[in-house]
Amino acid sequence: MFWSIGVILVNAYVVYCIFLQSSGVKEDIMSHHDFRKAIALASINPAEYYIDSNTKKSRSQAESAPPTKASSTGKKWRHPR
Fold it and tell me: Domain segments of the chain: what residues?
């Protein structure tokens, strides 16, 4: 079980790097350690580390605001810097 999760995380990181490099973003790519840390933190505390890309707010901030049509889609991870 845990081995398969590690494989999925490595494959997700490879896709993340390839996608950003193909998009022309080369300087803001997270290290593998930071990528795994971001996923772990978002799993532990999604209200703080999982944000809505349309509103640029964390889940707790977005839930306190009135919902909009665009805010229900487009979730992404926030870098834990």
Answer: 2-77
CB atoms within 10 A of CB 41: 17
13-35 burial by CB neighbour count: b if 16+ within 10 A, else e? beeebeeeeeeeeeeeebeeeeb
Helix ranges (H only) for the chain are 2-22, 32-44, 46-49, 59-64
- How does pLDDT run across 24-69, given as a tens digit for each residue? 988 889 999 999 999 999 889 888 887 766 666 665 555 555 554 4
Place of tokens 């640029």: 56
Q: Which residues contact 77 (CB under 8 A, 6 or more apart)?
A: 38, 39, 42, 49, 50, 51
What angle in degrees, to the nearest 10, is found between the helix axes of 2-22 and 32-44? 120
DSSP 8-state class, residue 67: P
